[in-house]
Amino acid sequence: MLRLSILSTVGVVLTVVPAYGQQPGVALSPFVSFLPVGGASPMAGLSLSFSGGPLAVRAGGHLAVQERTTSATSDLAMRPWGADADALAFLESYSYGNLIAFTPYVFVGASTAAMDSGGARFKRQGWSYGAGASLPLLGSFGLFSEVRWRMSEYVLPNADNAPPASREFRVGMSFRVGGGGSLADVIRVLSPAEGKALSGASTSTNSGAAMLLSTADEYVGTPYRRRGTSPSSGFDASGFVRFVFSKFGVNLPRASRDQARVGEPVRADWRALAPGDLVMFEDDGGINHVAIYVGKSRIIHSTETGGGVRYDDLNSDRGRWFVEHLAAARRVTPDLRGLLLDLARGFPSDISNNVDGPDHAPRPGSRKR
Asked: pLDDT, tens digit, for every residue of 18-31?
């Protein structure tokens, strides 16, 4: 993934990442809107968005928390409400280290606003535009904030006799409830029958992944050793993955946190994975473990708690630790013609200072508490 580092005056390194948008699927977002002027603030609302890549569509509604009077001398109370349908475009994501800090976006859409009072309703339709930023947290959970300008008519803001745009600030939370990139995937994710097991995006294995997994299988039983990089001395997690890929001419970075930055990004959702994908796990405050996804809810890796290179079933008590700690996924395709693919260039290679610690999954046979 192409990256550009920017050093600010306070010494914080931000990384600019090409836009990948929100994770594909369905997100439910409760929010609160504030109007700088008027008595209808705040307004509470709920929106539903469907996203894929850098684009998304969103629909939602909002209602004033309190009624307001039409004037200081009138007892007529009204409760404003409204609805929006927006198209969103996500821009470049800015990250610090391995964590995405925020993703700015812009949007435009149609809107309707109304005020109800007894048997009367005052309603206006128009369009709105604005910008915001999302902050992903804890996988399926995130925060966002945005500013919106509303036009009460379908005219450009600079048109003759155009009404002034009203400004609105919005903050909210986002909960991803679907993990698929298509309608069929979303239905499958939301289906209780399908949600009982992790099946992966593909149960078939292409020839490159099949050879990779076959090679990894040859080292099952090799003992775990911190800083280990060979079958004779033992492997740690990233050392095992790096060794297996080196058999196919792929030179990976030494540490799992750096391996999480090479190859093709795959959304951190077990249903999006294919056999041969790298999966990284967060532990001790950052990415600290890596495995190879086998398919059919299994991974192969070198694990301290498992005693060395082994398979783990993600539907087991032990496997649920890895399900809950999934932080990133990457797709690195070996060149079967034997051409060297050097992905370690630019990453630290000092083994003593660039190693993974042991994982903290329950040991085999123990029940997770």
From this structure: 443 444 568 899 99
